[in-house]
Amino acid sequence: MSQFDEIFNKASIYDMLFINVKPVLIHKSLYDLFINDKPMFERWAYISKTKFKFDVTDKVKPIPDIITSNDESILVVQNDIYLKNAVYYPEYTRILSISYAILHMDNGQKRDMKIITNDNERIVIETFLTDLILISEARKEAKKESLYTLCGFNISTHDIPLLIKRFMVYRDKDDDVEQFITVKELPLIIKKSLSIKPWESGLIDTANIWKFNGYNDAPLMLIADFLKLKKVDELLPLNELSEYYWKNIELNREDTLDFIGMQSATQMNFSIQMMNIFRKI
Q1: CB 3.0-4.6 Å disulfide test: which of 27, 53, 121, 245 passes with 32?
Q2: Which residue segments constitute the domains of the chain, with CATH numbers given?
Q3: Which of 160, 30, 7 is closest to 90 using CA atoms?
């Protein structure tokens, strides 16, 4: 079944596993990165210079509350570049929340949903990958012919690459009990999503589907408002979500983590609503 055949198939939504992954910056500021991880700071300085056309000074300092000099203005600019862009690099982020859902019919459409949120990235990744293994085993026991099709917004370019790269941080740390991860190999459903051709089923990225073979990308909130999708909160861009986390985590840890988890669930829910619309047109 081709990808659009699957999308327009009214029953195929029940063979999909909807996911979303939310990261935040490991280091809350460029100065924090400079103090705690000099090699990664040097790599970021190169990225800033070559990609964002801004030289990072080697005299990084905390940003004062009141800017009184040109040197301090430079500190602000280079920190802003880091905050707005580093969050899109898996090497500078950690996963804080993963949500997933499976739909089924039971007197109407119902969903089995889980939000995994924790300050410890290892726990989030291990819990999700373990759940994926169990879900795939249950599907096999139910004698389904194929694995679930992964579905989400920007999962092919962001969520799945992020998950794999962050998984690699922990899989060989047997000597560190706190960082020990029992899942030593990626579940087949993740591996399969990398090997398929874009026009084949196995992974559906709703960001790409929304193009309908066109070329223009569209922000998710634009799509949500255009389609009048239901939502509890506005989705924050990743850089703003990371900033929210670092500003609030010490003030109210539980509420902050709950908010991040709801952001993940909201984005996942948008993909569910989009697929429900697509399959009926």
Answers
A1: 27
A2: 3-19+94-275 (3.30.420), 30-88 (no CATH)
A3: 160
Unique residue bearing structure tokens 């026009």 = 199
Got the DSSP string for 64-118?
PSS--SHHHHHHHHHHHHHHHHGGG-GGGEEEEEEEEEEEEESSSEEEEEEEEE-
* 87 and 28 Cβ atoms separated by less than 8 Å: no
pTM value > 0.90: yes
Please check whether residue 52 is in contact with residue 26, taking contact to mean a CB–CB distance below 8 angstroms. no
The band of 202, judged by pLDDT with boundaries at 50, 70 and 90, is confident
Residue 251 DSSP code: T
Confidence of residue 196 (pLDDT cuts 50, 70, 90): low
Is residue 147 within 8 A of residue 96, CB to CB? The reply is no
